[in-house]
Amino acid sequence: MEIGIRIVVVFLVSQVVHIGAQKEGEEGCVPGFQVKEYQVEYNGGFQKDHPLTQVFFDDCAGNEGLAFEVSHPDFQVDEEMNLVARRDVMDSGTVMFIHGVNEQVDDMAQVDIVGAPPRSPQTLREILGLRQIQPYRSKRALFAPRMHVNENMEPPFPKVIGTLQVMSPGMENDHIFHMTGSGADQDPKGVFTINRVTGEVSVSQELDREAISSYTVSTYLTQLKERQTF
Predict the structure, then answer these.
(1) Residue 201 belongs to a domain with what CATH number?
(2) Which cellular compartments is it found in (predicted)?
(3) CA dihedral (100, 15, 162, 179) positive or negative
(4) What whole-number distance in Å separates Cα of residue 167 and Cα of residue 165?
(5) From the CB of residue 67, how many other CB atoms can be counted at a distance below 10 Å?
């Protein structure tokens, strides 16, 4: 069976956007994350509220109204700019992204989880409580989380930037993920790839915003049963 729901994932190559003037005496200040990439060691999991690493962010204007969003819903950045787990977490995945934004700047940083196993496709179902939702209410077969790609992402490649989740009951196993579109199987080919078994989406190279500002691909999965399209 081929589930033809067209989940279109748009990869925006992120770039620091500076709005307004710098403070007097801060002519050398570059607004945004002062460190773009962080590494955290995985030792079987992470404890609630235990700092993993501290991020360094400066909007060159006092950081007023600054807010952070983490790509993994079980993590957050606290008031002291420490990345912490909201609860005890075993299934962290191998990479996450931190989005920092206020009226002055919009920027992202990457956190690599060294030694962590790939994130389980079942985790998001558990977080959202989807096992309690009746089949007739689950209209979408796939869920694509927000995926961030930094413009100056450094080697080594490929890097995992997100994982597609199977949402329809009865399709959690025995399926194959596919990706098509510009940047996947169309020119420029191979920029983004997908693990046909796990649904992990990876970027294979450093991206240039000036050359291509965004990529749009479609994803779907197939299963050896009757053909059905959503």
Answers:
(1) 2.60.40.60
(2) Cell membrane
(3) positive
(4) 6
(5) 9
Q: Does 227 reside within a domain?
A: no
Q: Write out the chain's pLDDT in tens, 230 residues.
A: 444 434 444 444 444 444 444 444 445 688 889 998 899 999 999 999 999 999 999 999 999 999 998 988 899 999 999 999 999 999 888 888 898 888 888 888 889 999 998 765 443 333 334 333 333 333 445 666 656 666 667 788 888 887 777 755 555 566 788 888 888 888 888 988 998 888 888 888 888 777 776 777 777 777 655 433 33
Task: Assess contact for 168 and 5: CB atoms under 8 A.
Answer: no
Q: Which secondary structure element, helix H or strand E, spans residue 126, and what is its range?
A: helix 123-128
Distance CA 137, CA 147 (A): 26
Query: What residue numbers bound the domain in which 142 lies?
Result: 2-222
Rounded to whole angstroms, the Cα distance separating 64 from 10 reads: 30
User: Nearest Cα to 43, choosing from 76, 78, 92, 84?
Assistant: 92
20 inside domain: yes
- CA distances 4 to 140, 224, 230, Å, are 10, 14, 6
* C-alpha dihedral, 118 to 122 to 124 to 125, nearest 10°: 170
Q: Are 186 and 134 in contact (CB under 8 A)?
A: no
Query: Alpha-carbon distance 159 to 47, whole Å?
Result: 25
